[in-house]
Amino acid sequence: MNLAQLAAEADARGAPIKAGLIGAGKFGSMFLSQVPTISGLEVTAIADLDPGRARTACKSVGWDDERIGRTKFLEGGSDLAALDQVDVVIEATGDPKAGIAHAKAAITAGKHVVMVNVEADVLAGPLLSREASAAGVCYSMAYGDQPALVSEMVDWARATGFSVTAAGKGTKYLPSYHSVTPDDVWEHYGLTPEEARAAGMNPQMFNSFLDGTKSAIEMVAIANACELSVPSNGLGFPPCGVDDLSHVLRPREFGGQLDKRGMVETISSLERDGRPVFRDLRWGVYVVLEAPNDYAAACFKQYGLPTDTTGRFAAMYKPFHLIGLELSVSVLSVGLRQEPTGRSREMRGTVASVAKRNLKAGETLDGEGGFCVWGKALPVERAGKALPIGLAHNVRLKKNIEAGKVLSLEDVELSEDPILDLYKNAVGLE
């Protein structure tokens, strides 16, 4: 709660936090737009496969020539991690294999890591977190994105003595969205392809938000960070508005839709017939908590907190998240207090690849948000050898797969590499 003051004091000492950004896409650009107005924070280096694009991004978000001129631009993320002028490495590429490699390079170099790349986090986050701790640095989720915001709410609930019944976020969802491809994604966002291109929006990335994959990734990240459980058959996406959170997201024994207490779940802003949910939480996050005793439950009522019919379950929520505009909270937290804004602790779940259509042997999978597969959140103990979505890019199928089937690691041609080995180690596969 005093980050701004600590940052201002660091600036006055002439010791601002020096951040290096890997990946100057949308998330990174949103962060860059805020940097000039944050005392005690400097971005000293930016790595991007196209350094010219990174320079253009800086100019487009309002950086002046002097600030751009004193920033180092380069191609290699691992090279950035090795720079003496960087204290905190922000990994924002979205590529899970690259993200893991960059995080390991940063940890080896003694740098803190802010992992925007949730795809990498759900592949090996707990192992990276332990490596960072052993090296005396922080591995942190990225504030502004839903997993870190939910982790904060869960921590608040537990620190105030409540047990967490459910935690998660809202999204726009219908079951039919699992088969949507980049070719028809924009009609569901109410945009034309031309409008999307003009805004610099990547159809495959935005399709991962729609087809359920991104929700699965984020819920698994939350489960892994907060010691919560993933639903046994994947996310249910129940339609639910903010007024009904404590009714819908409570255990079935109390009339809700959860298997048990302590679950992650994503709620839909659409009813199953396509009608909008009243007071939806499409852009926000929530936590459902349970009063530990009758006295606390009575206080819920006395202070106007909406509860379920038992009076024991209540919800707190945040209606919006601002993604990269809030990322500096993580950078300052790890740099000034050596404290992550959420971090992976153990592999509670994984994100399995599910066929969007009938797939044929010899086809090459195109990964998250593509034409071939979508990602389904599963508990680690039920996932077995399921092919994680983070390894489902640019790999060839060895056999035909029916639409709706979960792909196995054995269904694709996967060369042995350190990332695959890291994932197997993380989930306990031989």
Report what the structure shows:
This protein folds into three domains: 3-145 and 324-337, Rossmann fold (3-Layer(aba) Sandwich); 147-173 and 212-320, no CATH class; 349-427, Type Iii Antifreeze Protein Isoform Hplc 12, CATH 3.90.1210. It has 430 residues and is an alpha/beta fold. It has helices at 3-12, 26-34, 51-60, 65-69, 77-81, 96-108, 118-135, 146-159, 185-189, 193-198, 203-210, 213-226, 245-248, 294-302, 328-337, 380-383, 418-427; strands at 17-22, 41-47, 72-74, 88-91, 112-115, 139-141, 163-171, 263-268, 285-290, 313-318, 349-355, 364-366, 373-379, 393-396. The chain is built from 17 helices and 14 strands. Helix 7 (118-135) links the parallel strand 5 and strand 6. The relative contact order is 0.14. The model has no long low-confidence stretch (mean pLDDT 96). The strands form four sheets. It has a six-stranded parallel sheet with strand order 3-2-1-4-5-6, with helices on both faces. It has a four-stranded mixed sheet with strand order 8-7-9-10. It has a two-stranded antiparallel ribbon with strand order 11-13. Helices cover 36% and strands 17% of the residues. Helix 1 crosses helix 15, helix 6 runs parallel beside helix 7 and helix 8 (146-159) runs parallel beside helix 12 (213-226). It is globular, with a radius of gyration of 21 Å.
